[in-house]
Amino acid sequence: MTERSLHLLIDEVILGLADDAEVARLETMAAQDPDVAFQLARARDGFLALDETAETLVLPDGFWSRVESGLDDAPVDGHVASAEIVDLSTVRRAMSRWRGMALGSIAATVLLALILGWSVLTPVAPAVIAVLLNDDGEAIALVEGRPDNTTLVTLLEQAEVPTERVMQVWTKPDEDGPPVSLGLLPTGRSETLTIDGLPAPHPQQLYEITVEPAGGSPTDLPTGPILGKGLARKPVV
Amino acid sequence: MLGVARRMLRRADLAEDAVQECLVLVWRRADQFDPTRGSAKGWIYTILRNRCLTLLRREDREVATEPAEFDRAEDRIVVDQAFDRLAASSDLRRCLAGLDEPTRRAIVSSYVLGHSHGEIAGRLGAPLGSVKSWVRRGLGKLRECLS
């Protein structure tokens, strides 16, 4: 199958224009080939925006109890029942309360996943990402700079900082200018730093972490040893 | 979800059935969901839209390729509304806007209303074969633009 005809098949299946045989064919291909599955999911997500244009409607009263009873009915998706038949109706009745709770939890989880997915994926895409390396070339921290100069610093190894000393994060917004402090990592853990008054971070901007006296560098310029440094790159999104 | 189903099926009772069946399927197939292959939302909505399409076919809609004038007008409003509501910044909107109007309507109406090639052809008074090849060209352009 050519790439072009595969793409067409995927698109027609997503739009609902494909017949049952074509849908089944694509599903088989996707089950066997992760690349096809990935392409299908990606194309599907591309059209998702159209689903979001539908009106938000409120579910009627009693809807969830109908769903719950639907779970007790025969499977609708063609699962073949086992030949050994065991009467589970009593167990099922006993389970229905738990099932109700579980279903409620699923609904809440799905909602949470959607909200989280939305908030994580949409507005906060970093403008630049820098991997900070130490002198041995090992990655010690990941720095994500957002356009509003919120900086996420994720430490990739436990730094050995003497007591009375603190890690300080620096950047050079202007290649030829002095380093500017983005903030301290007093807990020695990953943190989100915010700072006002800097231009949005750009690719090739230098980021580094140094060890400074407690309270931060007295000169407002890096004075201590460098734990790691790296140049920012623009992520491909 | 109910909004998507209602838009496609038009009837409140059918739409509720579709959402209900979809949730039952989500519950049963939860083990098949693979987060590395696209969003949960996309997965759930695909299940929902498939249920809707099955219900639509059960209603024998594919035979009715000559809808009443009133339905046509309403379909057109729904399709245009779906397109207009896409965020101005979205790639899908930009790429759909690059298609000629009948192609765009055909693609959006198949996704949003579940129209088959036959229904699209019936609405346009065009031969089925040309509608198919013409939607295919549109999909090709759309994919090129989105990639």
TrEMBL record, chain A:
Protein name (database record):
Anti-sigma K factor RskA C-terminal domain-containing protein
InterPro entries found in the cross-reference section: Anti-sigma-K/W_factor (IPR051474), RskA_C (IPR018764)
Keywords from UniProt, A to Z, are:
Membrane, Transmembrane, Transmembrane helix
Q: Which residues form the Anti-sigma K factor RskA C-terminal domain?
A: 106-226
Stretch list, region Disordered: 213-237
Pfam families documented for this protein: RskA_C
Q: Which GO terms describe its cellular component?
A: plasma membrane
Q: Which domain of life is it from?
A: Bacteria
- Organism lineage: Bacteria, Pseudomonadati, Pseudomonadota, Alphaproteobacteria, Rhodobacterales
Q: Name one GO biological process term.
A: regulation of translation
